[in-house]
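Q: My collaborator sent me two sequences in one message, no labels, and asked for predicted structures for both. Can we handle them in order? The first one she listed is below.
A: Yes, handling them in the order given. First sequence, followed by its structure tokens:
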Amino acid sequence: MRKILLLLIIISLLFTSCEIINPKEDIPSYIQIDTQKVIINDIVKEGNNNHGISDAWIYIDDKYQGNYEPPVKFPVLTSGSHKITLIAGIKTNGISSTREEYPFYREYIIDTVLKESSVLKINPEYTYLNNIHFWIEDFQDSDIKISPQQGMNSDTVIVREANPDIAGDYYGAIYVNSNNPIFNAATNVETDPIYYFQANRRMFLEMEYKNNQHFWVGLYADGIPYSIELINPSNTWKTIYIDLTSTIKSHPANAYMLFFNTEWDGNNQGTIFLNNIKLVNYE
């Protein structure tokens, strides 16, 4: 009898030690994200739905899981019923090292069931928050809101051109060359004042661009220019999110004007195409 008990104890210890050496592995479930979209509310004039969202920030039951650049499939060590939250991520000022959650899009939330070894596909559709103020120049009207202002040295202006790739669409074009080397233009503070910035809240410029010529984006604060971002050449259309917050906090003013400027770099004809310019802040 003693021998049998001793044998059972030895077998039990062997199984226990095996479990310690080779513990049971958790089986992950997977989340797959292929695309991300922005849905526009045409009633409140939010512009078009082109975007430059780069990442998806993932939360499960409000616990941060990581941020991923779609298309992507990644494992999560959880299963069962959960709330999954996706937040649109951007490269602030177009810089990969300054990724953050974009503050003006609403979270995309689903309640779902995660199953071990199974893949859950989520393609989020984001919308703007309700309490957002927009100033938009999309060049769809002939009255262009950005032009050389009094006292600015500029040899040329923005011209409105038809988009050859999208019927009924227009963009703004800037050309600089040896005859017209300097471009300086801004919003008109008298007819279109940008006075609604609030220094204690986030403020962004969203903009599409395509260019072979460097150019600056900045703000006039009560007539004093502050350059914010130098835009490098791109041979494809890109969307950038430029953070204006720190400039406005550092330079409080009664009125601001958004400006663009460039000086011909001497290489062929310089071209800058702009579209869907949005100044975005909280009401």
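Q: And the one she listed second?
A: Here it is, processed independently of the first:
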Amino acid sequence: MLQDMLDMLRLDLGSRTMGQLMQEREWAYGEIMRLRREIARLTQHNSPRSIAAQPISPVPMPNTDPMLDKHRLIRLPEVRRLVGLSHSSIYRLVSQGRFPVPLKISERAVRWRYADILEWQARAADDL
């Protein structure tokens, strides 16, 4: 029987849904921030002039600002919005090898790596 979130983190990734993985990531983020605040509070109490006593800049919450998270996977509507192309134009460029190939995440779903789209945009801007 699972004791706490740490036990959940030890489970095989293939046995959990994407929603569960996202919840675990959010929990881990919150726990890390709580521990950082506690360390900063204790350090400030013991040594107010130390570098460690400086306020800790918060780490951006995952997916708070999607434009900053280059490692995320994005769906076709967002790809269309980012590159300004239609559905058919994107797939035509994919078939021609001139656009990033999507990752097949299930039988009926694909996603693009956000970093691949950014790289494609940079190359397209250089070609102009």
